[in-house]
TrEMBL record:
NCBIfam families: 5S_RNA_mat_M5. Gene3D superfamilies: 3.40.1360.10. The keyword Cell membrane does not apply. Residues 5-91 form the Toprim domain. It catalyses: Endonucleolytic cleavage of RNA, removing 21 and 42 nucleotides, respectively, from the 5'- and 3'-termini of a 5S-rRNA precursor. Signal peptide: none annotated. Keywords: Cytoplasm, Endonuclease, Hydrolase, Magnesium, Metal-binding, Nuclease, Ribosome biogenesis, RNA-binding, rRNA processing, rRNA-binding, Transferase. One of its GO terms (molecular function) is rRNA binding. It comes from the Bacteria. This is Ribonuclease M5. CDD domains: TOPRIM_RNase_M5_like. The keyword Cytoplasm applies. One of its GO terms (cellular component) is cytoplasm.
């Protein structure tokens, strides 16, 4: 069983149980949207000592939790499981995700930085992403950035320091 040195941030107990079947790992549970300052303090301390990886459910509450953590711990690493890979019988989440999807998410971590814009809004529009959901989702998948609308994709591309040329190269459309 592979060991993950960082602490993985998840939403609840079932997420912890699912991940610990696949990896030797410690987790911090946010208790869903009930995440409070005490948990954020714990995450901050874990980042200083071992580093953290945020792995929340691919839904709106999961994105809100991720955003709260990003505000407090901007240097955290992020792992994303695609929505289509995390649908169970009655729920959507990490605990319902396919094992391969969780493993892939934790092997393809993303780090974000606010220091510079790497793709302008004009360049983003020129990629014909807005209004083309399939293309937007393809770019989310290629760069392991999770799921969201076009505005969220633009923000995450810049946070991950991805350029227009990087996107064209991955799409096989470089000029």
């Amino acid at each position: 069983m592979k060991t993950i040195k960082e602490v993985v941030i998840v939403e609840g107990k079932t997420d912890t149980a699912t991940i610990q079947k696949l990896f030797d790992v410690q987790t911090i549970e946010t208790h869903g949207l009930a995440i409070d300052d005490a948990v954020l303090d714990l995450i901050e301390q874990a980042q200083k000592s071992r580093g953290v990886i945020v792995l929340t459910d691919p839904d709106y509450p999961g994105m809100q939790i991720r955003n709260k953590i990003m505000q407090r711990v901007p240097e955290a690493k992020h792992a994303f499981v695609n929505k289509k890979d995390a649908i169970g019988d009655k729920k959507l989440g990490i605990a319902e995700a396919r094992e391969e999807a969780i493993i892939s998410a934790l092997e393809n971590l993303v780090t974000f930085s606010n220091d510079q814009e790497t793709i302008s809004w004009k360049e983003f529009i020129s990629l014909d992403i807005i209004g083309d959901k399939a293309r937007r989702l393809q770019i989310y998948d290629l760069f392991h950035l999770g799921y969201g609308n076009a505005k969220t994709l633009f923000k995450r591309l810049n946070l991950a320091r991805i350029t227009k040329q990087d996107i064209l190269n991955k799409l096989g459309e470089s000029k």
